[in-house]
Amino acid sequence: MKRHEKPDSSKTESAGSQPPPEVKQSEREEAQIQERTAISAHVVYEAILAEGRSELQRSTSALAFSGLAAGLSVGFSFVTQGLLQFHLPKAQWTPLVAKLGYAMGFLIVILGRQQLFTENTLTPILPLLKEKKLSTLYNVLRLWVTIFLANWLGTMVFAWVLAHSGIIEENARPTFLEIGREAMRHDFATVVVKSIFAGWLIALLIWLLPFAEAGRVAVIILMTYVIALGSFSHVIAGSVDTFYLVAIHEKAWGEYLMGFMLPTLLGNIIGGVALVAALGHAQVTAGEDAE
Predict the structure, then answer these.
(1) Reported pTM
(2) I need a labelling partner for 24 at 20 to 30 A (CA). Which of 5, 10, 52, 82 fits?
């Protein structure tokens, strides 16, 4: 007697649960659309906001060591630009190539996740604008003071070593002096304006990095190259160039502080906080209260 086998219900259900081909095609197309769609400003904002909150939670000692490393590392912008300028022939196009060397220090600092003061005119400011708490303000000021002083110490050590060692060949020293003099040839007001543009570009660079992904190196090089071409003043990278003049006794401390450091610090803060952090925060959060 033949037994009647029951159909396998699991196979039947499995066959019945398969989406039709057109649904699969639609899902594939949607996935392709998502891959080719630029991430929104809100996603960039949230990524930087999360990073800012993380940085504000770091200990003062960790920030100090990271800031010192950044101050030392950014000195390679001065060295690379100076060596390129020295070895290239004296021609009208020479600065266009030599100033590519300015990107070197920033590549080391940013890819090495070291703390540079001008990056922090954006990253920790977003949590402050978002939360508006005294505790957050205190942490921002703690971070700023710690990183700036550590950066500054690193640049002075780097410049002093360059000035008092045989790292730079004697016949190349005039080239490095020329770079330092160029950074200090403007009056106070002009340096402030130039440093606003530098602070603006560095903060924009940090804003672009979450989207850049595989193109991070190209973005860093292009943005810092524009700073070098425009001779825009950067308070940390430029301190290596200018303190080099102090270290060889061509400039006095007062000339360096009032002619470069103070106006550049002021301009970089304005450029980073007002033109990028505040506007970036506004463009993402505008209308949230109304909702």
Answers:
(1) 0.83
(2) 10
